[in-house]
């Protein structure tokens, strides 16, 4: 059995498929990143108890 | 897709396009359009990125259910001329690959829709995939001639999911958008079944034209066209309707019922003389019907300033 080399015929045959999968994955990364940016920047200002006086948190049970 | 295939003699190397074809891109385009309308006509709006994600993952979920359908139905797809060239029956894609892609993309689309919008929309998408892949494909399609009626429900969910993605709840507008597509699907497909020499019979899929005869199918087309009228009219009178929707409702439903009436009044002997002209016209009209009805909702939404 010959070992797979960089020039194996398989790489040529599967190039378009690999490219497609690669681009689809890149697209997914871009979407998750974009969605994260939107969710974080549009959310209410997030605060939590950190041993400092935060009047905004009073009465919220936190 | 396993590495073992490196040395196996696989005569054909599937391309990315073969896998994409598993997602039924043409059906997906209708899903994108109706889901987009459901999303845009809602009284509140999403951030454009969230809206884009919602549409993308609704479409991906629909595509996933298409892949599951092609995995399960490969045996009957191979028998029928219209579907014999699909990736699985033609041997370009292995059945196991179609199953893996279907299951994987189902999970991805539901989780991503939940993250992008809300749990209710994601649950509805999950139910739609289940309904199409299990209830329709595995159970009803080969069992009852009313398979089209029930299968139509799966195609009717997208505008409702779009609406719920924005509002978080199901309201009467969403139900009526669902109901329009639900009632529209049977006459649309039965008209097609009348003028295509279908081979559903060879594949063992019960179609109304075969099980109950063509005159019964003609009656059913008229009945559903008539039942569609109050549904479409009601939608035009809700908060998403408006003058344009009302006009579209009046014109399109008059034409639709008239077309169905023509189909009902003739028999196959008469239809043969003009090569099923009335049936073909009705089928074409049915495509415009849905497109223009949802387009009218968009126009009214822009008139209200929602868009």
Q: Mind explaining what this structure looks like?
A:
The complex is a heterodimer of chains A (62) and B (307). Chain A is 53% helix and 0% strand. Chain A is built from two helices and no strands. Chain B has two domains: 16-167, UbiA prenyltransferase (Tetracycline Repressor, domain 2); 171-307. The interface between A and B is medium-sized, with 16 and 17 residues.
Q: Which residues of chain B form runs of ≥5 with pLDDT under 50?
A: none
SSE run of chain A: HH
Structural class of chain B: mainly alpha
* CATH class membership of the largest domain in chain B: Mainly Alpha
Helix tally of chain A equals 2
Radius of gyration of chain B using CA atoms only: 20 Å
What is the CATH topology of the largest domain in chain B? Tetracycline Repressor, domain 2
Number of domains of chain B: 2
Shape of chain B: flat
List the SSEs and their pairings.
The complex is a heterodimer of chains A (62) and B (307).
Chain A: H1 9-13, H2 15-42
Chain B: H1 16-21, H2 25-40, H3 48-72, H4 74-79, H5 95-116, H6 119-140, H7 147-167, H8 172-195, H9 200-203, H10 208-211, H11 214-237, H12 243-265, H13 268-273, H14 277-304
Features:
heterodimer; A: 62 residues; mainly alpha; 2 helices; rod-shaped; B: 307 residues; Tetracycline Repressor, domain 2; 2 domains; 14 helices
Task: Explain briefly what this protein structure is.
Chain A has 62 residues and is mainly α. In chain A, 53% of the residues lie in helices and 0% in strands.
